[in-house]
Amino acid sequence: MGKKNYYVVKEGSKVGIFNNWAECQASVKGYKGAVFKGFETKVEAMEWFNGRDTVSADPSGSINSIGPIDYEVYTDGSFVNGRYSYGYAFIKDGEVVFESNGVGEDLEAASMRNVAGELAAVQHAVEKAKTLNARILIYHDYSGISHWVNGDWQAKNKFTQAYVAFMKAHHGLYEFKKVAGHSGDRFNDYVDRLAKEALGISTK
């Protein structure tokens, strides 16, 4: 194994590409959920770093584009009083063409709070894409949605492991794009309301 000459930090106090371990370590030390990796060449480092926005999970673990996108899909989850929910919307030409929401039924999964809803939203959206024979770009505001699938985060419980297995089984159908939560993004706010409405949470 060659010497690591470059270090990429995707999630940390400072995000970027560093050419020494000390700077990388300073960016990730004490940062919960830090995501970083070392590379021999700058090209490899830049490819991994630039893949953080739009990636599909190939079984080999490589980052690649799947080609034309048929729909943009926004997903979100919510949680209240021991119950979780999901919401998602298919977008075409800036308009909602299909939407769905619902309440999760797995009481054990509810221990993950709104994350359980986030995972459910993505899986339901992928299942819908499969019935439409469509390729989708999934917009999500929780980092784990893509990080668990592409291996940046380790899936440690049976729910995240099942999620990863499901997504890898459908790897040709989707790409990911991270958006900031509660940032005024029209459709991110829209699916946030969908998820909350499934639990009877007022969004007025």
UniProtKB/TrEMBL annotation:
Enzyme Commission (EC) number: 3.1.26.4
Annotated protein name in UniProt: Ribonuclease H
Residues annotated as domain RNase H type-1: 71-198
GO-annotated molecular function: DNA binding; metal ion binding; RNA-DNA hybrid ribonuclease activity
Keywords from the UniProt entry: DNA-binding, Endonuclease, Hydrolase, Magnesium, Metal-binding, Nuclease
Domain Ribonuclease H1 N-terminal residue range list: 6-48
Superkingdom of the source species: Bacteria
Similarity annotation: Belongs to the RNase H family.
Reactions listed under catalytic activity: Endonucleolytic cleavage to 5'-phosphomonoester
Obligatory cofactor(s): Mg(2+)
Biological processes annotated in GO: DNA replication, removal of RNA primer
Stated role: Endonuclease that specifically degrades the RNA of RNA-DNA hybrids.
